[in-house]
Fold this protein.
Amino acid sequence: MSDLVSDFDFDLPPELIASRPLEERDASRMLVLERATGTIRHHAVRELPSFLAPGDLAVMNNSKVIKARLKLDDVRGEVLLLETREANPLRWQALVKPGRRFRMGQRVALGGTQATVAEILEDGSRVLDFDTAPDLEGHGEMPLPPYMHREADRADDQRYQTIFAATEGSVAAPTAGLHFTPDLLARVPHSFVTLHVGIGTFLPVKVEKISEHRMHEERYSISAETADAVNGAKRVLAVGTTSARVLESQPEGPLQPRTGRTDIFIHPPYAFRHTDMLLTNFHLPKSTLVMLVSALAGKEFLREAYEEAIRERYRFFSYGDCMLIL
C-alpha cells in the first residue's frame, strides 16, 4: 500500500466549507457508508438512532473547549494557548504570532495579566509564564479553525461546544459531537471518554511519506463506568475521531479505566480493535483525520464517498455535515 500523503488529497470547492453552523444542531445531513455492501446513502443525522441495534453503544468525547485565543493588550499580536505544562496553571505552551513579539524574556500583556516568554520550543511554540491565571472567560475567544476566515462571536461560545462538554482542556471542538441535541442524545445509548483536543490533530502534514509524520500527544481519560459499558457493548460507535483515538490507544482485550497521553496515528492499513462504527464530519485534504477515516472505511471507498458528498453539496469541516461508517 502506498505511503504517500498525496494519496489523501482531493479538490474541495471553497464554497462548501461551512463557516457558520446550521440553525439547529441536528439538522445536518448524514452520508451513510455501508462497508459490507459498498453502498452510500443519504440521510439526516436525526436518523442516527435507526442505525443502532440493541446492545450498541456510542462513545463520545466530553472535553470542553476553552477560550484559548488571546489578543495582546497594547500591540498587535495574539496567542493560542495549547495546554498547561508541568501541572502548573500559570505555565502554558502556546502558539504565537508574530514571533518577533515573543522573544526570550519578553513581557507581554494579555488575558487581564502579564506573561513572560520562558522558553522557545523546537516547533516554534512558546512557553509562557503568567503572573496570575489568564482570564479566559473575560478576555479569551473561541479558537475557531483558520479556514473559517472570521473572528469568533458570542454565538460560537455555545455552538462551538457540544451540549455534553464537561471537562475543560480542548483547543478545538470534537466536532462530530456538535450535531447532538438533548433529544438526539437521549435516543442514543452512550458513554463518555475525555480527550483534550490539541492543535496537533489539525496541523498540516508537512512530510511526503505518512510513516515520517509524528502526532502531538493529547491527554485522555477513560472512567471505570465507560470501560464497563464498552466491554459490555455489542458494537461500539465512536462519535468523532477523537473518541476513536482514545479507544484505539488502548491495548487489545477488555478496556481498563485509565488516564494518560496518546500520540496514536491511525492510517491505512490499521486494524481497529475497539471501534466498530464511526460518526465523523468531513475533513481537510491530506489531514491525519482523513487518514484515520480511510483506515476504517477503506481508502477507495472513502474517496468515492467524498466525491459523492462534493457532488451533492454537503457542508465540510467543523460546522459541516457528517458521515456514518457502518
